[in-house]
Every structure is written in C-alpha cells, then in structure tokens.
Design a protein that fits this description.
It is an enzyme of class 4 (lyase). This protein is globular. It has a single domain, classed as Rossmann fold (3-Layer(aba) Sandwich), CATH 3.40.50. 37% of the residues lie in helices and 18% in strands. The structure holds 1,3,4-trihydroxy-5-OXO-cyclohexanecarboxylic acid.
Length: 141
C-alpha cells in the first residue's frame, strides 16, 4: 500500500512553532519513526506552504498512491480550491490535525475539506497521523 502524507503551511516549522500546541518534535523526526513502525507501507511525505502546490500534489497523488493523509493546516479553514481538489480525485483523503481544532478559536471549527474527506482525526498530537495510517490499513482488510 502506498500512502502520501501531505502537510500544508507552517508545518515545516513543527518542533519550533508553538510547542505548547504542536509539540517539540520536528516532522522529519516523527516521519522517520513512522516509517520504522509501518514498514509494510510505502510512505511518502511532502510539505508545502503554497496552495497551488498542495493541489498539484493531490492531483499527482491520485495517480500514484492509494490514499492521502492531509493536514492542510490553515488552508483547511479557507481553501475552496483544495476542497475541490479533494472532491475531484478518486482516492480516499483523510483529514488530520495535530491539535483539536474544535477546542480552539471559532475560525478553526469550520473545514472546507471535511465534507469530501474519508474521515477526520484531530487532537492527538503527531499521533493523529499514525491513527490515520492505521485507518488505511484497517480499510485494506
Ligand atoms: C492544524 C490546525 C490548523 O487550524 C492550523 O492552522 C495549523 C495546524 C493542526 O494540525 O492542528 O496550522 O492543522
């Protein structure tokens, strides 16, 4: 099984950005652990701060992988274009958030992507990605 983890804006700063909300581990560090733990999965990771690049990555992923684990970060709450891309592609997209977006500012409570996502995992720290991954493997059974 091939899975792409796709991270949006500011998630390149994980580990140093608001550690009380997002933790003190960089995504690269976490990704290494994740790859070790899920050896049976062909796991790829991409991050971009640019909306169009995230859309391009979703289009390409739809031809290359079985599922996408997407943390669109702030674009979750603003981007109709990314939501349209998620709707357009044929593979499942799982929406993830490190923080519990429903326990934060009101503007984080709405997701344009959620209606087109396979499911949403939010609030488990970096473990949200692992839970999403497990849901993909569970689906496969
Ligand atoms: C986030 C939550 C978003 O509201 C925020 O803009 C982010 C990260 C999360 O993973 O908790 O950048 O997606």
């Amino acid at each position: 099984m091939k899975i792409l983890i796709l991270n949006g804006p500011n998630l390149n700063l994980l580990g140093e950005r608001e550690p009380s909300v997002y933790g003190d581990v960089s995504f690269d560090q976490y990704f290494t652990q994740l790859k070790d733990k899920f050896k049976s999965v062909e796991l790829n990771y991409k991050q971009s701060n640019h909306e169009g690049e995230l859309i391009d990555a979703l289009h390409i992923a739809s031809r290359q992988v079985d599922a996408v684990i997407l943390n669109a970060a702030a674009y979750t709450h603003t981007s109709i274009a990314i939501a349209d891309a998620v709707k357009a592609i044929q593979i499942p997209v799982i929406e993830v958030h490190i923080s519990n977006v429903h326990a934060r500012e009101d503007y984080r409570k709405h997701s344009y992507i959620a209606p087109f996502a396979k499911g949403i995992i939010s609030g488990f720290g970096l473990q949200s990605y692992e839970l999403a991954l497990q849901s993909c493997l569970y689906e496969q059974k």
